[in-house]
Amino acid sequence: MRASLIILLAAGVVIVAGCGGGGGIRTDTGGGAIVEPSQPTPPDPVATSRTTIQGTSAVDLIDYLKDNASGGPWGPEGNTWQRWPQLPLWEGQPTVRVRTDAKPEYHRMIVKAVDIINDWLPVEHRMVMGAPTSLWTDDPADVPAGEIHVTFNSPHRGGQSRYNESGDRHRTDDVPRMVSNLVAINADFFVAEQFHEVYGVLVHELVHAMGLPGHVYEGRHPTSLMPDGPYRGGGLPDEAGLPRLPRIDGEALMTAYAIYDDGETHHDISSASLGPWAQTIPALHGEVTTDGGTARFGVEYRTQWTRVWDEGPLPAIQLAASTLAGSVTWTGKLVGFTDAGMAVEGNAGITVDVIRMDGTAAFTDIMAVDTSWGPNLSTAITVNGNHFADAGSDSRMDLQGQFRGTGHEAATGVLKWEDAATGSLTGAFGAILE
Predict the structure, then answer these.
(1) Which of 7, 89, 344, 395 has the fewest CB atoms in 10 Å of its CB?
(2) Distance of alpha carbon 222 from its chain centroid, rounded?
(3) Considering only CA atoms, which of 130, 128, 115, 182 is closest in space to residue 152?
(4) pLDDT of residue 21
(5) What is the DSSP annotation of 107-158?
(6) 425-433/327-338 β-pairing
(7) Does pTM top 0.85 for this prediction?
(8) Sheet strand arrangement including 46-54
(9) Triad 299, 304, 309: Cα angle to 5°
């Protein structure tokens, strides 16, 4: 689990004694100069900090990934459900579409589930929310390439994730790739009061859809949402909370895409192939206070990968339907790591024309300790609902973000910058409405 961010803000306490209608005290220094009393510094609306996190052990991670790429009997009882000798990962960013007949609360579940799973995916492989679809099919081959369709009328108990892949997953000389996926949830299997169980099954199936096809032995991985038995509703709070994917599942996703994306089999996944693996992870965190709750963002650095994440309350309506008008700007902070593991911090600014639904994301004064890291970064962005992303005009930049809070008063997101001259930078940002 991601460690909770705790930030202590210390403000000076000013005691003002007044009489009559005076609004405070001014001091005469004796030379005739009047000195105004100092005022407490207001808290920064976007606060950042540095910390360390205890990650998954190499032994647990390798065991987990081997279960997902075993291609044969596994588990203490020789369970044979698992038949994928390789991991069918996506080459790009899949688009998630929900069927138009899904209940509004289920649609919101999907947005939230995609949000938390994306926190454990490389920026270039994060899922993108697309428009609802009216396509009716029970065959994943009918789902357009590059898409994951989600329906809530599965006839099967619980849920299913069904694959359409390229390549031959049973050939070790071929690299299987996910082409499309159909996630079907039987919402009627759960009583109406157990939406959190529907949500848990949805997250479980979307993890499968992102290329981890197997289940893991619950006795070795008790916190995982991917057990070798039926999902029992553990590990996630209900819809009122801020859910997080268990760290073991998340680190497995990140590591699969970072290291094991070339058709590695059960025998290829080992401590030697994993390389030096530290359990203590340096991290930078930030948070923005909104009317609907606290939005958070952060970045973690391992030698194998850099993870960026953002989370927080989502608006009930889309930006285009809000009371905001004209050109609107959110300002805040960027935190990140370079490809060499150097921590950086800078300023962030998101400007959107609410009529055109486009704008600019800019990151300036990026510093590593007291030294400038490199150039200011900027990219054109487009807005879709409450999400925004780079417009694709600069191949060096991948950026995704979301508006947060009941009144769209915050924006958070993640980015990856790759340039031969400056090196790469992976970061997360948070900003508050000006």
Answers:
(1) 395
(2) 23
(3) 182
(4) 31
(5) HHHHHHHHHHHHTTS-GGG--EE---B----S-GGGSPTTEEEEESB-SSSS
(6) antiparallel
(7) no
(8) 46-54, 280-290, 293-301, 306-311
(9) 20
